[in-house]
Design goal:
This protein is an alpha/beta fold and about 325 residues long. The protein has helices at about 1-25, 30-40, 55-105, 115-125, 155-160, 180-190, 205-215, 220-235, 235-245, 315-325, and strands at about 110, 130-135, 150, 170-175, 195-200, 215-220, 255-260, 285-290, 295, 310-315.
Length: about 325
């Protein structure tokens, strides 16, 4: 659209330049008189001529009127059409976007599309997890991105409802201030009591307030960043391993969490009986039980129960096989 508008502007300026230059060369008028004659001719206003036209000037005017008015009419018509088409496309785009969001179920809502929000969305997209972004600043959005967006204030109930919060599985609030995140958590918990809520905390002491407001997990980027830097200094090999194992798209090695469904063939069996380590070559680092307790470094005799979450380390292909045995992964 911008390219087409630029072409039209250049076309109109070219016509005015041609007319002004023509009158100046043929009649010898100054630039102002030549431009004035060009304008009243193209706009068909019909004011009297600035000066009497010569025979050559009249021939030029006839040709210029036939050519110039046609070009000007085409430019105006095309410009109006472009504007209306743009508005229609915007309206159709909003309708299409709303339809897509209404069809979403068990999705995540990301409140805030800043630096942290973009990273979260990138990881969710890589894992093909459905999500919607709520952002109030239109300038933060990428026009070429196919991400589903809701423009508005995430602290408002109507905006949260527009993102399908009643059907959502989880919400991540990474707005710029703790007060905004606190308000989002309160509103989201009231609209969907079963929602899994993860919130960002910037200041010390905000974690407890966010938890009391209804957040399931609170993450402090500054605290985590500080620990990561300290561990990089003290335990560089451990940090390198974790980065390697948790990097998105890594084929050689991945660390995943896999939930054991009720209908899984793993339920009631030990790790040894199913040959998870021996046959699949997958290491079970830890098991999170349904009651929230953690079993670290489980032995081969450890029994798997329904609802357990297996923290597994191995090749992507092997992890996919384990996920198939465990049933559908519901992270």
């Amino acid at each position: 659209m911008r390219k087409r508008l630029a072409i039209l502007i250049v076309l109109i300026l070219s016509v005015f330049t041609l007319g002004t230059a023509g009158y100046r060369i043929i009649e010898g008028w100054n630039i102002l008189d030549s431009l004035y004659m060009t304008i009243i001719t193209l706009t068909t206003i019909g004011f009297q001529e600035v000066h009497k036209l010569s025979y050559a000037g009249r021939i030029f005017t006839i040709i210029f009127v036939l050519f110039g008015i046609g070009v000007l009419a085409y430019a105006i018509n095309t410009g109006v059409r472009i504007i209306f088409e743009g508005e229609i496309k915007k309206a159709l785009g909003r309708v299409k976007l709303e339809k897509k969001i209404k069809l979403l179920k068990k999705h995540y809502i990301v409140c805030g599309y800043g630096r942290i929000g973009r990273i979260i969305c990138k990881e969710l997209k890589a894992e093909k997890v459905p999500f919607v972004v709520i952002e109030h600043d239109v300038n933060e959005l990428d026009a070429d991105d196919d991400t589903l967006f809701v423009i508005g204030d995430a602290t408002r109930d109507d905006i949260l409802k527009a993102s399908g919060i009643e059907r959502a599985k989880g919400l991540v609030s990474v707005l710029s201030t703790d007060a905004q995140n606190l308000y989002v958590v309160l509103s989201a918990r009231g609209l969907n009591p079963d929602l899994r809520i993860i919130a960002r905390a910037g200041e010390e002491g905000s974690e407890r307030k966010l938890v009391r407001a209804g957040a399931d997990r609170v993450v402090s980027p500054y605290h985590i960043g500080g620990l990561r830097i300290a561990h990089t200094i003290l335990k560089p090999a451990v940090v390198d391993f974790l980065e390697f194992a948790t990097k998105t798209g890594n084929i050689e090695m991945q660390m995943e969490e896999i939930r054991v469904s009720d209908a899984s063939e793993l339920t009631g069996s030990s790790l040894y009986e199913k040959g998870i380590g021996r046959q699949l070559g997958v290491i079970i680092v830890s098991i999170k039980r349904a009651d929230g307790s953690m079993t670290f470094n489980p032995t081969s005799r450890t029994v798997i129960h329904s609802g357990d979450v297996l923290i597994a380390l191995g090749e992507s292909q092997k992890l996919n096989e384990l996920e198939r045995l465990a049933g559908r992964n519901e992270v």
